[in-house]
C-alpha cells in the first residue's frame, strides 16, 4: 500500500524557521515533491528531490533521505503569507508518458505575528 | 510558468444531472493529466490518470461509469460527473505534467472546481 505521514498542524511566529517532516511507504519511489495550498486555491509546486540531500530555493529548502524514507521542508524567515497547507507527494511510478503522485495528508501551517 | 485552466470554478446542480469540468493546458502540451478530489481540510485524493488518446486509469474505488474522463487532445481533458448526487459534492482539481518536463517532479494544477449537488 501507499502511505505518507505528516504532522497535521504546525504553528510558528513571523521570522522563525519551521520544519515540516514527511515519511513515506510506497510501492515505488522516484522522488518527493512539496506543494503549498492556500485555502480555496490550487496547490503550487515548491520543490522536488529525486536524490538524497538538500535542495534550496530561496526561503524554502527541501531534504530527502531515501534510505530512511524521509524528507522535510524547511521554511525560513516565516511570513504571514506562508500560512497555508503544505503537502508532500511521492512520485511512485514512471509511466511512459507521465508520473503518478501520491499526496500526503497535509500540514496546516499557521504563522502568528 | 505553465498555466492550467480549469472551468467552471463553481457549479451547483440538481441531483441526477451530469456536470462536465474542463481542464486545459494553455501554453504547453500535457500528455498526462491527473484528476483529484479534495474534501475540506483534507488531502488530494487521486481519482484517475488520463493519457491523451487512451482510456483513463482509475484508482481503486473510483467508479469509472460515474466519473467519465476524456483526454481527446494534448491540451484538454474533461471530467464528467454523471447522475450527480449530494455525496459527489466536493472540490475537484486537475493537474497536468508538461511533456517536456516529465522528470522534474512538478505538476501544474488548475484552479479547481467546487461542485455542489442539491
How do you describe this structure in short?
The complex is a heterodimer of chains A (113) and B (118). Chain A is built from no helices and 11 strands. Chain A is mostly beta strands.
Protein model, in words:
The complex is a heterodimer of chains A (113) and B (118). Helices cover 0% and strands 62% of the residues of chain A. In chain A, the strands form two sheets. In chain A, strands 2, 4, 5, 9, 10 and 11 form a six-stranded mixed sheet that branches. In chain A, strands 1-3-8-7-6 form a five-stranded antiparallel sheet, with no helix packed on it. Chain A has 113 residues and is mainly β. The model of chain A has no long low-confidence stretch (mean pLDDT 92). Chain A has strands spanning 3-5, 9-13, 18-25, 31-37, 44-49, 53-57, 60-65, 70-75, 84-95, 98-103, 107-112. Chain B has 118 residues and is mostly beta strands. Helices cover 0% and strands 51% of the residues of chain B. Chain B has no helices and eleven strands. Chain B has strands at residues 4-7, 10-13, 19-25, 32-38, 44-51, 57-58, 67-73, 76-81, 90-97, 108-109, 113-117. In chain B, the strands form two sheets. In chain B, strands 2, 4, 5, 6, 9, 10 and 11 form a seven-stranded mixed sheet that branches. Chain B has a four-stranded antiparallel sheet with strand order 1-3-8-7, with no helix packed on it. Chain B starts with a strand and ends with a strand. Classes of the chains: A mainly beta (113), B mainly beta (118). Chains A and B meet through strand 4, strand 5, strand 9 and strand 10 of A and strand 4, strand 5, strand 9 and strand 10 of B.
Radius of gyration of chain A: 14 Å
The percentage helix of chain B is under 10%
Taken in chain order, the helices and strands of chain B follow as EEEEEEEEEEE
What is the CA-CA span between the terminal residues of chain B? Answer: 37 Å
What pattern of helices and strands is seen along the backbone of chain A? EEEEEEEEEEE
What's the shape of chain B?
Answer: globular
Bin the strand percentage of chain A.
over 45%
